[in-house]
Amino acid sequence: MRGLIPAILILAGVYGAISVGGGLWLTDREAVAQSATGDPAAGVVVDGQVPGNTLGNSSDAELWRAIRQGVEGNISSPGAQGGVLIQSEGENWRAVRNGPVSKYGVWGLLGVIAILAVFFAVRGRITIEAGRSSQTIQRFNALERFSHWLMAGSFIVLAVTGLNMLYGRYFLPDVIGKEAFAIITSWGKYGHNYLAFAFMAGLLLSFVLWVVHNIPNKTDLNWLLKGGGLFSKHSHPPAEKFNAGQKILFWLVTLGGFSISLSGLGLLFPFEIPMFAKTFAFLNIFGFGLPEQLTMMQEVQLAQLWHTVMGLVLTIVIVGHIYIGSVGMEGAFDAMGDGEVDLNWAKEHHELWVKKTLSSQASSDGSK
Ligand code: HEM
């Protein structure tokens, strides 16, 4: 017992010494650190020497310059993308997407709506001049209508969810709240990814069903020269199953839709479907002078920009198509509704097609 008290006193002394000494040492370190961060002069590089000595204190300007310029280093994990620490093109991509692409997209969409509003105010609804007859003629069969609505329905969802991805964050969180915006955007993204396949199927089927009716010919020139009769109440330039305006729409949808689909696949499977370097190499045959060496990251960025631009262009075109196929023209919607259109409507808008259809019906009736 007698030895216990001195032992406790010694231990307490050692503890005290350690605590006070350690505390003083820490306080000293903090003071040094604070003075180092507090005084900007202490952080200045002098003769290539940086403060601190964790990994050596010489600043390798060449190394940092290379990193800043996106030079790829060696890494042991799979996927070479990780070897690039700073990818400057990412900043350019973001600036182009959120800058001119978004801006001109809005102008295009508002522009087409304004044009249609002016057209409607001046020309009004395009009516059936001869009035409705009591007869109808089949314009599109069930397969054609299924194909159209497969393509159209999916496109509308793709367009709305795509526009939300581009513009939604600028105003929707204020209108519906951040949580609701996050939910609709993440579900919208799923819808966008999966419905893309329905769109591609509809696009392919519509192409197969309608391509024969969309080969341009002399009739189209006459139709175009007369403005399709759109600007005059009594002009009905003759047309076959599809007039020149519809043929233009068909090829815009086919080629634009194909291009959107391809770039969309490039985004669904990133770093797996490079296509721009090869496309640029082909275009360079015609003297475009485009870069042919692209990293996989640049491939994805270009796919994203192209996908957005083509998506906006096609959406703008389709707004015009929806107008003319619904409120803009009396009797037009029936063609994609039950497939039967009024005979007078058909004669005014597709005279040559009506003649051909009625004569082939008559000859098949006669041969029975
Ligand atoms: C609510 C939306 C839509 C409506 C009301 C609509 C209406 C119509 C109508 C009535 C026709 C037949 C015109 C005729 O008989 O001559 C048609 C044809 C067609 N539609 Fe649509 N459509 C819509 C959306 C779309 C979309 C989103 C696409 C493509 C992405 C599309 C592509 C086509 C094509 C290629 C044709 C054949 C060429 C033509 O007639 O212009 N449609 N549509």
Automatic annotation (TrEMBL):
CC terms in the record's Gene Ontology section: formate dehydrogenase complex; plasma membrane
Keyword Membrane (UniProt): yes
GO process terms (BP): anaerobic respiration; formate oxidation; respiratory electron transport chain
Gene3D superfamilies documented for this protein: Transmembrane di-heme cytochromes, Chain C (1.20.950.20)
Domain Cytochrome b561 bacterial/Ni-hydrogenase: 139-330
InterPro entries: Cyt_b561_bac/Ni-Hgenase, Di-haem_cyt_TM, FDH_cytochrome_b556_subunit, Formate_DH_gsu
Entry's Gene Ontology molecular function annotations: electron transfer activity; formate dehydrogenase (NAD+) activity; formate dehydrogenase (quinone) activity; metal ion binding
Name this polypeptide is given: Formate dehydrogenase subunit gamma
